[in-house]
Amino acid sequence: MTEHQGTRPTATVVICVYTEDRWGDILAAVDSVRAQSYAALETLLVVDHHAGLLERLRKEYKEAAGVRVLANAGPRGLSAGRNTGIAASRGEIIAFLDDDAVAERDWLRHFADGYADPKVMAVGGRTEPIWASGRRPAWFPAEFDWVVGCTYKGLPPGRVRVRNVLGGNASFRRTAFDVAGGFATGIGRDGDKRPLGCEETELCIRLTRARPDAVLLIDDRAVIHHRVPAGRERFAYFRTRTYAEGLSKALVARSVGADKGLESERAYTTRVLPAGVARGMRDFALARPGGAGRAGAIVAGVAAAAGGYVLGSFRARGGGASFSVVEIDRAEGDGEGDVGEAA
Prior knowledge:
The protein is built from 10 helices and 11 strands. The chain is α/β, with parallel strands linked by helices.
């Protein structure tokens, strides 16, 4: 039996989609939301400038209660799609689920429970990879699972306070966007183009600056399973994604300052990654598969991210790279709203 809203906050789930190639994954994502032990008030499918997919999804869910299909009202990209969902939402909390992921049955309930404390403004969860090949590539270090949108080795277990949640498996109080604005455009994903990121990091830092008492959590019981396609199991993608992360981090650091923008990354690079290299070399010495590869991948990933950060910092100083913070305008009564750039 599905539990309905009582003392817990009502929840909108936003799933941003952009390609018909993920049709089966999109349907599975929606099904996983509809099967939650704690029912969502609504599920919003936001289609990123793809008329064919928009029409197909509207036909698919024409008779489905609680599912709405919307067109991205902003520029192309994941950030604008999320902002469209925020503007149209009716729930007291807004949860985001990747279009190629499925949520475990209690995912939304764990999110909702996290908001018992009124200071909690965001709750994230744990994302497990589903490798296209059936198992993790031997060379792929778990410390870099963020490369494929998943929870990485080094994050503390349980329900813990964090600087930022991870965007593909996260929730926010709707009022957080009234305080801080929406996701910044020009920094995050744009379909299959260069895999930039960090839009959720920038938003979370902006939120805690606007509300210094805000609490952001990750609860590792709120689990989703995220598909990793074959192309993302290759080292070429690993290198490209880590380089793009460096570019994105440079933009964030330029905006919010390096102290806050790189706070978590310093601990990650000085403690988590050296331990990962040591484990890889130990496994190599013990003739275990992939040990040297994992150690080498960690070093290569750090080098690629550093290179991206240096270039991104140079571009940001020269005015060649920028992003826009978006205000969320909501109409009264119907849950529909507009998205506009802040001045």
